[in-house]
Write a structure and sequence with these properties.
The protein is globular. Helix content is about 45%, strand content about 15%. With about 180 residues, it is α/β, with parallel strands linked by helices. A 5-stranded parallel β-sheet has the order 2-3-1-4-5, with helices on both faces. Bound molecules: adenosine-5'-diphosphate. The site of adenosine-5'-diphosphate (ADP) has 17 residues, from helix 1 and helix 7.
């Protein structure tokens, strides 16, 4: 069975949202619909009361994984893109979604994210104008001992190539009866 929830995690600017959009487009060409739950969008709307403290990050992921769960229970599959920087937070996702989720680590080195600086936030974080910024002034734990995580490196690849890698994985490894 196709997983109901595809959860992309990684540093800000790693490529989660871009790759999520590509996956969604590629799947819709196969008449498979996944809706997008994007960390930035959720934080700007339903979770706009939350900041970046440990407690708020936990609450952000708890609410977001609950949303994905509610949607998926009603047959609406989701691609979620959230930084999800620590094992504790990824465990919240696992606890809520269990067997219905597959986690992909969008693995882009921080140097590359700083170079891209899509949202101009790394510059601000380095200048301490933004506090608690993942990878600069807040922890990002690599998923070293998390055997269920699929690692997707992005360096030297296009977003479309990364999306196709993920698609191959979800169609071939978890979808034998499609
Ligand atoms: P995130 O959602 O992880 O914060 P975004 O998707 O918003 O990251 O931004 C990633 C940026 O990196 C985009 O401007 C994208 O075009 C660029 N990029 C370059 N190479 C890749 C790649 N292989 N995969 C994804 N994004 C890439």
């Amino acid at each position: 069975m196709l997983k109901k929830v595809i959860w992309l995690f990684g540093l800000s600017g790693a490529g989660k949202s871009t790759i999520a959009q590509h996956i969604s487009q590629l799947l819709s060409q196969k008449n498979i619909t996944y809706v997008l739950l994007d960390g930035d969008e959720i934080r700007n709307t339903v979770n706009s009361d939350l900041g970046f403290s440990t407690d708020d990050r936990r609450e952000n992921i708890r609410r977001s994984s609950e949303m994905a769960k509610l949607l998926s229970q009603q047959g609406i599959k989701c691609i979620c893109s959230f930084i999800t920087p620590t094992k504790e937070l990824r465990d919240i996702v696992r606890k809520r979604l269990g067997n219905n989720v597959i986690l992909f680590f969008i693995d882009t080195p921080i140097e590359e994210c700083i170079k891209r600086d899509v949202k101009g936030l790394y510059k601000k974080a380095i200048n301490q104008e933004v506090k608690n910024f993942t990878g600069i002034s807040a922890a990002f734990e690599q998923p070293e001992n998390e055997n269920d995580v699929v690692r997707i490196t992005t360096t030297g690849k296009t977003p479309d190539e990364c999306a196709k890698e993920i698609l191959d994985y979800i169609l071939n490894k978890t979808c034998s009866n499609l």
